[in-house]
């Protein structure tokens, strides 16, 4: 990692432990304005820290909505908890970005125009958002403290309207990725990635329903047994060239982190592959045909959201297949930016079905790519070979 960071560094306040690869007690300081770190070094430590803290704070909101309103929802009103979680988390995260990096742009999944028409819903979201804070006052104030008003919440949501593109600093934000999993009571993720001049540099993902233990086996029911007190939930992050980590999600100061990496796959027939639960989002038939071609006999692990990227990055699975269902669907950058850097920093490769790297410079979508294939570097070519054979590319 980069060691040329000037002191003081206000950002890296975590529970004391020597395990974080980028934690240093010398970083402790007082004001976030005192060291514009991202101009002093290109190591993106400040961005990583703020992203982690912002995702952690937003995850407090999504967990509240999950346990109070969403889990197992089957009524016609299914959209409402998702809407509340989405808008609320987007407002909180954009506020944190604006506070710390006021010149950066955000490509967020949500926009507030419909919310401005629905005063009752807006008021309901504001009632929730105004009380969400990290229970460490210093960490919370680093993110800007509470939003000032319902109007400032709506303004924050609207600031997710960047068109994206090849130049500048652009955050890709999916406040609740995997909304179907969120409603089903399964996996969902709060995802934030920083793209600089078209290249992902930083990623942070909160997965409130994944087990903390990186070595815990996953299956398609992982997350279904969550309760408000079961204490699960993981915060993943990565910086280009500096590795990937996981740590437990907390409600205050960041917990100590551990490095994570993909596991070696000496025998591809023993690999575990992940895919989405929703058949409309990736072709489960084609995914299965690729697995069969590779000689994989294990059943797929179906998980909603970028929890798939997280799971393979920590070695709880090996391959993520997202083969297209609709030829003309363009994947959204917020569905992949954070996961892409996490897997690559954990020793993996993330490509489209042709084996090309995902191109985050094309605007709000991955217009130059089709589908996603992620695997440890050593086996990626073999997996892509099978994908091309199955899809007759
Ligand atoms: N036809 C499609 N192909 C691939 N992904 C899709 C498709 N339709 C929607 N999605 C996106 O898949 C993401 C969830 O992925 P997963 O199934 O892996 O959990 C959602 O963000 C969703 O976007 P949206 O929220 O706009 O519907
Ligand atoms: Mg999404």
Automatic annotation (TrEMBL):
<feature type="binding site">
    <location>
        <position position="109"/>
    </location>
    <ligand>
        <name>Mg(2+)</name>
    </ligand>
</feature>
<dbReference type="GO" id="GO:0008441">
    <property type="term" value="F:3'(2'),5'-bisphosphate nucleotidase activity"/>
</dbReference>
<dbReference type="GO" id="GO:0000103">
    <property type="term" value="P:sulfate assimilation"/>
</dbReference>
<comment type="function">
    <text>Converts adenosine 3'-phosphate 5'-phosphosulfate (PAPS) to adenosine 5'-phosphosulfate (APS) and 3'(2')-phosphoadenosine 5'-phosphate (PAP) to AMP.</text>
</comment>
<dbReference type="InterPro" id="IPR000760">
    <property type="entry name" value="Inositol_monophosphatase-like"/>
</dbReference>
<dbReference type="GO" id="GO:0016078">
    <property type="term" value="P:tRNA decay"/>
</dbReference>
<feature type="binding site">
    <location>
        <position position="177"/>
    </location>
    <ligand>
        <name>Mg(2+)</name>
    </ligand>
</feature>
<keyword id="KW-0479">Metal-binding</keyword>
<dbReference type="GO" id="GO:0043647">
    <property type="term" value="P:inositol phosphate metabolic process"/>
</dbReference>
<protein>
    <recommendedName>
        <fullName>3'(2'),5'-bisphosphate nucleotidase</fullName>
        <ecNumber>3.1.3.7</ecNumber>
    </recommendedName>
</protein>
<dbReference type="Pfam" id="PF00459">
    <property type="entry name" value="Inositol_P"/>
</dbReference>
<keyword id="KW-0378">Hydrolase</keyword>
<feature type="binding site">
    <location>
        <position position="335"/>
    </location>
    <ligand>
        <name>Mg(2+)</name>
    </ligand>
</feature>
<dbReference type="InterPro" id="IPR006239">
    <property type="entry name" value="DPNP"/>
</dbReference>
<dbReference type="GO" id="GO:0046872">
    <property type="term" value="F:metal ion binding"/>
</dbReference>
<dbReference type="InterPro" id="IPR020550">
    <property type="entry name" value="Inositol_monophosphatase_CS"/>
</dbReference>
<feature type="binding site">
    <location>
        <position position="174"/>
    </location>
    <ligand>
        <name>Mg(2+)</name>
    </ligand>
</feature>
<keyword id="KW-0460">Magnesium</keyword>
<dbReference type="InterPro" id="IPR051090">
    <property type="entry name" value="Inositol_monoP_superfamily"/>
</dbReference>
<dbReference type="InterPro" id="IPR020583">
    <property type="entry name" value="Inositol_monoP_metal-BS"/>
</dbReference>
<comment type="similarity">
    <text>Belongs to the inositol monophosphatase superfamily.</text>
</comment>
<dbReference type="GO" id="GO:0046854">
    <property type="term" value="P:phosphatidylinositol phosphate biosynthetic process"/>
</dbReference>
């Amino acid at each position: 990692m980069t060691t040329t960071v000037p002191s003081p560094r206000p950002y890296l306040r975590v529970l004391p432990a020597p395990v974080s690869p980028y934690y240093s007690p010398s970083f402790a300081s007082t004001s976030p304005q005192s060291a514009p770190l991202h101009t002093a070094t290109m190591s993106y430590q400040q961005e990583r820290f703020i992203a982690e803290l912002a995702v952690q704070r937003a995850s407090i909101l999504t967990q509240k909505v999950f346990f109070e309103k969403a889990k197992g929802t089957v009524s016609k009103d299914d959209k409402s908890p998702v809407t509340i979680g989405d808008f609320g988390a987007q407002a909180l995260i954009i506020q944190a970005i604006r506070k710390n990096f006021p010149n950066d742009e955000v490509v967020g999944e949500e926009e507030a125009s419909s919310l401005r028409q629905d005063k009752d819903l807006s008021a309901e979201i504001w009632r929730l958002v105004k009380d969400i804070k990290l229970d460490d006052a210093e960490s919370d104030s680093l993110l800007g403290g509470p939003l000032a008003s319902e109007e400032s919440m709506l303004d924050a949501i609207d600031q997710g309207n960047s068109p994206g593109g090849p130049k500048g600093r652009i955050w890709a934000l999916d406040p609740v990725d995997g909304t179907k999993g969120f409603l089903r009571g399964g996996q969902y993720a709060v995802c934030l990635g920083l793209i600089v001049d078209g290249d992902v540099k930083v990623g942070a993902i909160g997965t409130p329903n994944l087990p903390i233990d990186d070595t815990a086996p996953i299956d398609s029911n992982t997350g279904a047994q969550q309760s408000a007190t079961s204490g699960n939930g993981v915060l993943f992050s990565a910086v280009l060239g500096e590795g990937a980590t996981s740590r437990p999600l907390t409600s205050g100061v960041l917990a100590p982190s551990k490095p994570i990496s993909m596991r070696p796959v000496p025998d591809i027939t023993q690999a575990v592959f992940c895919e989405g639960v929703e058949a409309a989002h990736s072709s489960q038939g084609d995914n299965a045909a690729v697995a069969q071609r590779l000689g994989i006999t294990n059943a797929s692990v179906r998980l909603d959201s970028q929890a798939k990227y997280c799971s393979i990055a920590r070695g709880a699975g090996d391959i993520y297949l997202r083969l297209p269902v609709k030829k003309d669907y363009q994947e959204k950058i917020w569905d992949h930016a954070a996961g892409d850097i996490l897997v690559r920093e954990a020793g993996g490769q993330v490509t489209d079905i042709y084996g090309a790297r995902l191109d985050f410079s094309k605007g709000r979508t991955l217009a130059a790519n089709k589908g996603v294939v992620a695997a440890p570097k050593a086996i990626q070519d073999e997996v892509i070979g099978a994908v091309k054979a199955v899809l007759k590319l």
